[in-house]
Write a structure and sequence with these properties.
By secondary structure, the chain is mainly α. It has seven helices and three strands, in the order βααββααααα. Helices cover about 50% and strands about 5% of the residues. It has a three-stranded antiparallel β-sheet. α3 packs across α5 and α5 runs antiparallel to α6. The radius of gyration is 16 Å and the shape is elongated. The relative contact order is 0.11.
Length: about 130
């Protein structure tokens, strides 16, 4: 996802269901009608209204695809190259992904940028010891 979602008219339910799997066309149109997204003046293109919305959605996507060990390694190497701190531009998305990955992998994600998770993600999901 590159921050842009193209949605067909409400009458084209089959295509809408393919664009956003797991949600009904009515649910998709209801969410896109809220202030979380802005409609582009030309056509039916929607963009997140704020960077935080895009970071949350991107982090959710990364976390969902990180259940497979191979994909998880790829995502980590792309977002935090060499096991180092994620770059500033990806810090919010990384924090949300770290907040949403499976609990058995959360500590690895959290350890690379604990402050980022606290400031930009959901710290209530962070792993705790003791």
């Amino acid at each position: 996802m590159r921050g842009v979602v193209e949605v067909p008219s409400k009458s084209d339910e089959a295509l809408a269901a393919k664009l956003v799997s797991g949600f009904s066309p009515d649910q998709v149109h209801e969410v896109l009608g809220r202030r979380l997204f802005r409609k582009h003046p030309e056509g039916l293109i929607y963009r997140p209204a704020h960077r935080t919305v895009a970071e949350f959605l991107g982090g959710r996507l990364v976390a969902a695809q990180s259940s497979d060990p191979r994909k998880r390694r790829r995502w980590l190497s792309a977002i935090a190259p060499g096991g180092r701190f994620p770059p500033t531009a990806l810090r919010g998305m990384y924090a949300w992904a770290a907040s949403r990955v499976a609990s058995d992998h959360a500590e690895q994600w959290f350890s690379l940028d604990p402050l980022g998770v606290v400031l930009n993600g959901d710290a209530s999901t962070s792993p705790t010891k003791g």
